[in-house]
Amino acid sequence: MPVHQLPPYAPELNPVEGVWSLLKRPLANLTKHSVEQLTALVKPRLKRMPYRPRLIEGFIAKTGLDLQPS
Whole domain around residue 51: which residue ranges? Predict the structure, then answer.
């Protein structure tokens, strides 16, 4: 498997940035009073993601990196 040297900070090459963007969008206008309330909103959204493989594939594809084994 090839090794890719990444710049120190490269959010466009990190699929997790897409996940956070998707999670934060519906929470932008909500005010939560505790970490527990925020957790209650985020947890179900995270749990649904594995059932949407095309979504996760899209996050990876957006990076432009070839992640297939050689």
Answer: 33-70
